[in-house]
Amino acid sequence: MRPFPLLPSLRLLPIGLHLAYGALQAGLLFPLADAARRERLKRRWSRQLLALLDIRIEFAGDPARIGTGLLVANHVSFIDIFVIDAILPSTFVAKSDVAAWPLIGWLCRRTDTVFIERGSRKAAHRTRQQMLTALGAGRRLAIFPEGTTTDGERLLPFHAALFQSAIDAAVPLHALALSYHGADGLRSAAPAYIDDISLLACLTTVLKARGLTAQVALAASFTPPLADRRHLAHRAHQAVAAALAHAERRATSP
């Protein structure tokens, strides 16, 4: 059942309270929790947030097939993080400027996010080592190899550099295809976090859309030994593109 309709501005209040609740969990519970408990906290909190945003999830595939390893996905919105966490709680690799976002940045810093530092070989090496440490510890690591968000209509090339961590750690790689659809089943750009849109404006647009569905498909899985990173990135890109095209055809078919 869909939540009782409220004006978007009123519905922002419980979302703000839920973000504050997440900050409290991250500050008090995360430091004391083991890995399994942290996954449960992420999954539950993310599902609750998506319910407040009136976003339903459809996952095409078997989550049980996806254990540890590297997840790669196309990138439409900051909401992608919570969609993935609601199904497959993960440690995310994010741009360093995300750390400065109000509240969400603080949450990311407290929940094991690996931030990509730019500007030097030393910074790149540090990021790579953090990724290898996470994968070596048996954590599920997630990246958005397009390097930026899109409106979901096109898939940008995948940057291959971050794929190296899966090769070096000898872990599986799973490619996910994410798309958002309105109540009519057609693809929706409402969650797109692009251009100069603010976080608040994006949330308001999502709340106005009402009844969105986040469709997530396991496009392909690759097991060690993995190909070189450029070939691996190309194959993952092809798989995600095919899965997105399939979702589009299904949405527009009579």
Task: Explain what you see.
The protein is built from eight helices and seven strands, in the order H-H-E-E-H-E-H-E-H-E-H-E-H-E-H. It is globular and about 50 Å long. By secondary structure, the protein is an alpha/beta fold. The two termini are 26 Å apart. Residues 1-5 have low confidence and may be disordered. Helix 1 runs antiparallel to helix 2 (35-52), helix 1 (8-28) crosses helix 7 and helix 2 (35-52) packs across helix 3. The chain has a single domain (8-252), classed as Glycerol-3-phosphate (1)-acyltransferase, CATH 3.40.1130.
In short:
The protein is built from eight helices and seven strands. The protein has 254 residues and is of the alpha/beta class. Helix 1 runs antiparallel to helix 2, helix 1 (8-28) packs across helix 7 (199-209) and helix 2 (35-52) packs across helix 3 (79-87).
How many strand units?
Answer: 7
Terminal Cα span: 26 Å
The helix fraction, in percent, is 40-55%
Please write the CATH class name: Alpha Beta
CATH architectural designation? 3-Layer(aba) Sandwich
Overall 3D shape? globular
Instruction: Enumerate how many helices there are, as a single number.
Output: 8
What is the third-level CATH name, the topology?
Glycerol-3-phosphate (1)-acyltransferase
| SSE string | HHEEHEHEHEHEHEH
